[in-house]
Amino acid sequence: MTYTALYRKFRPLKFEEMVGEEHITSTLKKQIVVGRVGHAYLFNGGRGTGKTSAAKILARAVNCLNPKDGEPCNECENCKAMLAGTLADVVEMDAASNNSVEDIRAIREEVNFLPTVAKYRVYIIDEVHMLSTGAFNSLLKTLEEPPEHVKFILATTEPQKLPATILSRCQRFDFKRISNDNIIKRLRIICKETNIKIEDKALELIAILSEGALRDAISILERCIGEGKEEILEQDIRELVGIPTFEYINEVTKNLIEKNSEGIIKIAEEVINQGKDIDNFIWEIIKYIKDILLFKATGTLEIYADKEKEHIKELAEKIEKNDLLNLIYDLSELASNLKNSSQKAILFETGLIKATLKKQETTQTVFAPQSNETPKKTSRIEIEQKKEVKPKLENNVSNIKANGGKYWDNILNTLKSTGKVMLYTNLIGTTAKEINDMIVEINFNGKISPFAKTVLEQRENKDVLEKLISQELGKVMHIKYNENIGSTVKKNDNSMDIPINIIDE
Ligand SMILES: [Zn+2]
Fold first, then answer.
1. Which range marks the domain in which residue 340 is found?
2. What is the CATH number of the domain that holds 216?
3. Ligand 1 mean position to 76 CA, how many Å?
4. 111-151: pLDDT as tens digits
5. How many domains would you assign to the chain?
6. Residue 44 maps to which CATH number?
7. 198-221: per-residue pLDDT in tens?
8. What residues contact 381, with CB distance under 8 A and at least 6 apart?
């Protein structure tokens, strides 16, 4: 079963089927029942939290011929046409690839016409924060005086990028991350209905990894199924997602405990170059340090293999409980900063260095008087070190960007090996390039058939590609197809976006 099939099959078709967003669905249903549906909505929330599903249900509910308690019937002519995506009055647009003034102008002209079949023309604009400034201005004019027969549903993962003028004209609903329990519940249902065997620990791990995004959870599950195993085990998921091995985790932790800045830079670069998921990696380290702390406090270590227990015992002897707590605190802060960052590699590396330097300062203040031969004015020297670190990191970033060929090859291979043959064959011979922090441009060098274009433009296919690219690059990315040029697009290099004082206190 393919990702598309699995995800589609279990996509909620009614508000009541949506997991964990009752605060939103009950309000929307009420509005529909009393006939007070607004003309513009903003659905805000992380990836895979159900914004698009909710938008589609809402579009059906307002146009349904037999709505019941605010829900669409999903059986009338209108509902069926909308489910099939053939009702011209409901327009879904992805602002990541249609973000120009012309795109919005086309809507502005269109809205003046009455809907052809349905009661309302509904425009669902996904990733609306990607619109250009001109497009926003154009949209604003429509939102100011919308015709009676038009509804807008805007969806975004980054509301802070929207102009206040747009925000103030929309009813805003914030979609929450879905709880691990709810994700597990949903996955269990899916596994049961599709006869997939999976161990509980594996379900828990998927829930943790998906971070509240049900769509991501289903996607991980689907990738595991693609492996063709009889029963999905926790270990399968670790391998699939590339959860770091204990060697890496141990090495990083050891360098953190030994306050070895050079060592930490080396291992951090290795982790980055290996394309590990940095968010997961930090959490694995935090968990590992927590276990060291637990071992210090209670003397027990349950879940580890013998070899690993030895490592943990060694590390536990080198550090005090308080310092372990401080490390956990610093790394948790780093993890939460990483979550919202588009510069994960840099933040990851500098965060780890910062953790080693911070400890060095306290330790060396204590021991400074003993070493009169090396008059380490520690704080000065550290500032010098910090300055030296910077160009190194820049190089690192450009290395990663120059590696476009490699990650693109990886992605094509994944498509091939996971049976996405249609996508794969249509992407043979293409190249990919990060043109900024949000967009990867895929270049066809002028060779793309209309058929290939249709396939590639399908939302599900774009989802698959964007997901893979985001995983490879460790940040949320969107794609843009370019049929005309090879690689002449000017790089919008904002790799120096990070504040220089990021390592300083
Ligand atoms: Zn209906």
1. 246-400
2. 1.10.8.60
3. 4
4. 989 999 999 999 999 999 999 889 999 999 889 888 999 99
5. 4
6. 3.40.50.300
7. 999 899 888 877 878 888 888 888
8. none
